[in-house]
Model the fold of this input.
Amino acid sequence: MTSNDDTFAGMLELLAQAKPAGGAALDQVAIATGAAGLITVVLLWLGMGHRSGKVALLGRLARYSERVSGMPAWLAIPAGIIVVSLITALFGMLWDISLHIADGRDEGPLANVAHYFILAGLFGVFASGFLSMCLPLEKPSRVAVKVAPGWYAPLGGVLIASAGTFALIGFPLDDVWHRLFGQDVTLWGPTHLMLIGGAAMTLIGLAVLFVEAGGASTRSAPAWVVFLRRISLPGALLLGLSTFQAEFDFGVPQFQMIFQPMLIMLAAGVALVATRIWLGRGAALGAALFFLAMRGLMAVIVGPVLGEPTPHFPLFLVEALLVELVALRVKKPLPLALASGMALGTVGLAAEWGWTHVFMPLPWPAALLPEGLIVGLAMAVAASCVGGWLGARLSTDRTPSLRSAAIAGAATIFALTGYGLIANGEAGAGALVMLEPAGAGRANLQVTVDPRDAADDANWFTATAWQGGGLVVDRLERVGPGEYRSTEPVPITGEWKTMLRLHTGRTLAARAIYLPADPAIPVEGVPAESNVGSSFVPEQQLLQRERKTDVAGGLWVIAYSVVLAIALAFLAALAWGVHRVSLAPGRPSPSRWTAEREHVDEQRDRDRSDQHREPAPQ
Done:
């Protein structure tokens, strides 16, 4: 065999070992499709069999759930399934992101254990909505949706099923996207956002379902049931809305740093303000504590227990306290939303700023001022207006001015998102890197940037290494004008992808230190060389090497337009559902859950008083 034959054989062997970079293998697509079809058939058999009277299992479960919860089964069963399903999906998502950061692409969608948690959670979400639609054999509420002659489904159930469908559609569309455009190694890929957004918005449907149930409770729920649903639903909404900042939580964001304060304020404004207006005193604080408990547990499991990069998380506790304090003085929804937004965007933002220096991998620097403060405050007020509208619609307050404020808030959110996406990768700078061997395929870095002030006032200037079996995010230490050094050794061999990342102003640039060859794309490797200067390039070229660059621009426009149209239709359906349930006659009081808890407490106090009361003289 000639040397050329040896080279060709070696290339074939590398290709056979390479992880796919343009969609899943067809056999795995077929297996996943078959499994999804089987689950769907079982679900249809269970739901439609219940409606026809041929399957008694769901009816028995319904009667049991009503006895335990005191709620109608078409609310109790979805409420029991959905929070568990979403927490399962969130755990799977965080684990999946951590695995991708540490190990790169999957060998296939069925080779990643985390995907099973995501799929199980999302199917659980869809199943909860579908079962809610199937359970009532009579019209369950005045706002129920007519599905077929004689079949009225709860409005909230329809919204939950729609959200689950929207999220599940993201899986096959994600594979199509990879085949067309290559792997988009970022959380903010369009189809990834469908998965996240659909799951997060499920909680809006569940809130509508609770409101829709109104006075249909079979009896007063036990105190522990009232407590759990009062913190788990808004806490899960906060969990869902916080997933959009996950790249920042791991320390490998691929977008401007101003997005992190904006996204934290978005989650706080919508979830906490809506929660406080709808559920009353203490609900916002309960939601924040539920969030911290769940995210803390997941961080421990994904990080120390499973040995993957640890997902960090925002605090939200100060923001919850601020909303609670504002609500003690301000009662009307619109002034409460505006005042809460101002408090969140100032004191709350300052608290998160400090928290990043305690816990986050990329603390917010002084260079983020004043832009970070301005956009954070604007987002906090805009999100609080949307949260105020949502909370008021879920209660009985139909203040007309809230709709205008919510529309203005939503428009501001979209405008701020577009503003944050305006970036470039032309740093106009280079870096000379000296490698000092530190053993075991690692080296310490001595970096000299040119021009010398290129990294001054940077939002981040890091040596980042990932996808080689772990994650290293080393914030370079400045030792002189234009001179920096690493604070820990970084890997420069194997499958690691090691680079300098520089974010100044609107510039997101990177300079390769070591990159392995990747025959599946295909791209050549970049060897680790000492005392070599090289220019910074747009960092997307290094972070997303799998992304295809030879795709016609028109195809990008069509693909993004299709995903955007689906997303806007879904959001419009959610808004319609919230508006429809707000106009329902005969609705419960806005503090129904609070009233239930107070009723339980009063009854317990009366019982205790009766036990200690002296018997009347005979």
About this structure: The first strand starts at residue 145 and ends at 148.
